């Protein structure tokens, strides 16, 4: 996209919608789309971040996530609202189809919904892996498979795989249609898979399709799963909060397009969003479709025969896979019994259950999403502390292997699910980061803005008053809560804010939550706080590429953390990096030594001071643009 194009768009836009905050949206939007700033790959895919050296959830900045795809769709929806041009929204969704939804799913037809997947328990520490695959543990029936097949006439899942190596840095050449034998990237990859204690610093990245070209004798499979033999196969993992965010973005695009009489222009994309939401129901079920509620004992807790296995909350992930070019054809699907409040999306549940534009074709989808909406609202109430913040989440599978939790957790369960202050991952604890709070509260506030639901208002009123009173102001500059600590169990859980910082992404998400809440509840203090946050972002944190702040990364000492490769295991990456029991994070990523920022890491590892970075994460930069735009749209200022 060239400069002339940007100038033309900007002029048209100001004429159509001229508020101060929508102009700020466009300024930030144009920075994101300025090709000199490096947000997008040559194929138009948004990178996780402009900067390549970044290790957090992805382990490299030029990877991308389903999160980034969903933020892109949302950004372009707001662009449509402000300019009347929804074509970029449609294009952003097309990228999801072209890159994030796997095309290699050839064995799916062999799937047997009466035997969705073989049980494999999570282990406490990555050093204990591989974990035994155990067919003696009963699993349940998958009630979604047949109705999705009847609705869409296909065995292929319409869900985003969560992680892509856009620049093919690892070199797997594992493109959307191919199995380690494509040409270049983007390459579908996966990380983690070794229990709650496996941080990004320990993870061993692997291609989503494994025909044993790289890794060891069995590719990468035997790092994770202990089995008697191994077969070539593909396997994908969805991050349901991202798929839900894409649905939520499409909901707004549809609403705004209706307002100006151009719904036709987005209707095809809206039908795809509805379909994505239909498959997203896999997140509402227990991992092995076992009975939900007091599911204690892997062997004693029975499999569900129909929907006894639904908890109706948006869980951490779901996954599917099948054999690749093998003599015997087989396929599997797994859902998830662990739900973090931070992943809930009442607006997406509302759209999929109540908005006729979004009615999914699956026979019981409306019913499922209506129950999910109700259950999500109840979850916020259950987890809300006296202070106002939301505590972690709930699980149907204690320790990821249906163990018995501490006895106090049996007292006040959530529909038989156990409270977990740090669901799914512990390094760092999954509910330490303040950002989860506004991420989820924002969706609740959007739902409240659309429906006026008094239950949502009650929850939000308490949350908003906690947040507003805990943002610190130094003149016109803010300090947001950064890290949170938790004690007690619901209904008596408590939060303490242990640190503050000037993270621009959480400031932006908080500002948008407050904007939606203030617009509906007529709350002047919430509106004023939103405006002050947005003004501070705009006036104090500008960079040439967006809006950001400096971060010091003491955690980057962990470039030498162990990868926990089992004794006797040897393999290699496409570039020749060895994988063996002494491997560390940097050993299996030697290409990082060619990164322009590597010198900072090297000096830190040699005893220098902790390195600092000014990152431009796609989600953050899009989030800020969206917050400006929404404030302008809501208040016409
Ligand atoms: C800007 O556009 C949005 C979406 O079409 C509309 O709701 C809002 O009222 C407009 N604002 C102004 C200032 O025209
Ligand atoms: C992987 O793709 C690259 C292009 O990026 C190509 O040069 C290389 O030969 C491919 N590797 C294999 C093993 O086919």
Descriptive account of the structure:
Keywords: Carbohydrate metabolism, Cellulose degradation, Glycosidase, Hydrolase, Polysaccharide degradation, Signal. GO terms for molecular function: cellulase activity. This is Glycoside hydrolase family protein 48. It comes from Rhynchophorus ferrugineus (Red palm weevil). This protein is 36% helix and 12% strand. It contains 15 helices and 21 strands. The chain has a 4-stranded antiparallel beta sheet. Strands 7-9-10-11 form a 4-stranded antiparallel beta sheet. A 3-stranded mixed beta sheet has the order 2-3-8, with no helix packed on it. The protein has a domain at 3-103 and 238-315 and 337-547 and 615-635: Glycosyltransferase. The chain is of the alpha+beta class.
Identify the strand order in the major beta sheet: 1-4-5-6
Radius of gyration: 23 Å
Number of strands: 21
**What fraction of the residues are assigned to beta strands by DSSP?**
5-15%
From the N-terminal CA to the C-terminal CA, the straight-line distance is: 29 Å
* Relative helix content: 25-40%
**Overall mean pLDDT:** 96
GO molecular function, one term: cellulase activity
Protein name: Glycoside hydrolase family protein 48
Organism: Rhynchophorus ferrugineus (Red palm weevil)
Pfam families: Glyco_hydro_48
């Amino acid at each position: 996209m060239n400069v002339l194009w940007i100038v033309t768009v900007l002029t048209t836009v100001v004429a159509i919608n001229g508020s101060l905050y929508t102009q700020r949206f466009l300024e930030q939007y144009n920075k994101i789309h300025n090709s000199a700033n490096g947000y997008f790959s040559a194929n138009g895919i948004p990178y996780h971040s402009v900067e390549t050296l970044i290790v957090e959830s992805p382990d490299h900045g030029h990877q991308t996530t389903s999160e980034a795809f969903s933020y892109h769709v949302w950004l372009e929806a707001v662009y449509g609202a402000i300019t009347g041009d929804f074509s970029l929204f449609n294009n952003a969704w097309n990228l999801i189809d072209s890159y994030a939804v796997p095309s290699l799913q050839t064995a799916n037809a062999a799937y047997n919904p009466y035997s969705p997947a073989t049980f494999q328990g999570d282990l406490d520490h990555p050093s204990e892996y591989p974990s035994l695959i155990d067919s003696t543990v009963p699993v349940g029936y998958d009630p979604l498979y047949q109705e999705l097949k009847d609705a869409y006439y296909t065995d292929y899942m319409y869900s985003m795989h969560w992680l892509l190596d856009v620049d093919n840095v690892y070199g797997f050449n594992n493109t959307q249609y191919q199995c380690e034998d494509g040409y270049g990237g983007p390459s579908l990859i996966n990380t983690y898979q070794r229990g709650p204690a496996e941080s990004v610093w320990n993870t061993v990245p692997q291609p989503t399709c494994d025909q044993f070209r790289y890794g060891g004798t069995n590719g990468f499979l035997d790092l994770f799963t202990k089995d008697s033999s191994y077969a070539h196969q593909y396997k994908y993992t969805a991050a349901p909060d991202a798929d839900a965010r894409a649905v939520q973005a499409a909901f707004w695009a549809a609403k705004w397009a209706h307002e100006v009489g151009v719904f036709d222009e987005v209707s095809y994309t809206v039908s795809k969003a509805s379909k994505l939401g239909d498959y997203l129901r896999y997140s509402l079920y227990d991992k092995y479709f076992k009975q939900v509620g007091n599911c204690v004992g892997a062997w004693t807790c029975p499999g569900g025969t129909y929907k006894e296995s639904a908890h109706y909350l948006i869980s951490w992930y779901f996954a599917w896979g099948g054999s690749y070019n093998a003599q015997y054809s087989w396929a599997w699907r797994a859902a998830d019994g662990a739900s973090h409040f931070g992943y809930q999306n009442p607006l997406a549940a509302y759209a999929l259950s109540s908005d006729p534009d979004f009615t999914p074709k699956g026979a019981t989808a409306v019913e499922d999403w209506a129950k999910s909406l109700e259950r999500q609202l109840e979850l916020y109430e259950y987890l809300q502390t006296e202070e106002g913040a939301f505590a972690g989440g709930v699980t149907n599978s204690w320790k990821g292997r249906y163990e018995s939790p501490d006895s106090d957790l049996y007292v006040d369960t959530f529909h038989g699910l156990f409270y977990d202050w740090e669901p799914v991952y512990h390094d760092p604890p999954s509910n330490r980061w303040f950002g989860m709070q506004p991420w989820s509260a924002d969706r609740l506030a959007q739902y409240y803005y659309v429906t006026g639901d008094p239950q949502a208002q009650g929850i939000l009123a308490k949350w908003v008053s906690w947040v507003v009173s805990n943002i610190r102001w130094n003149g016109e500059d803010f300090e947001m809560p950064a890290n949170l600590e938790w004690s007690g169990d619901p209904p008596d859980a408590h939060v303490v804010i242990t640190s503050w910082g000037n993270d621009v992404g959480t400031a932006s998400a908080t500002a948008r939550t407050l904007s939606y809440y203030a617009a509906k509840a007529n709350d002047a203090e919430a509106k004023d706080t939103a405006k002050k946050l947005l003004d501070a972002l705009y006036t104090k944190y500008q960079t040439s590429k967006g809006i950001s702040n400096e971060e010091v990364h003491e955690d980057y000492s962990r470039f030498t953390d162990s990868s926990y490769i089992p004794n006797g295991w040897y393999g290699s990456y496409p570039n020749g990096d060895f994988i063996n029991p002494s491997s560390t994070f940097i050993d299996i990523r030697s290409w990082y030594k060619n990164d322009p920022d590597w010198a900072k890491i090297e000096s830190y590892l040699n005893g220098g001071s902790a390195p600092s970075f000014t990152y431009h994460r796609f989600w953050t930069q899009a989030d800020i643009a969206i917050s400006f735009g929404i404030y302008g749209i809501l208040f016409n200022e």
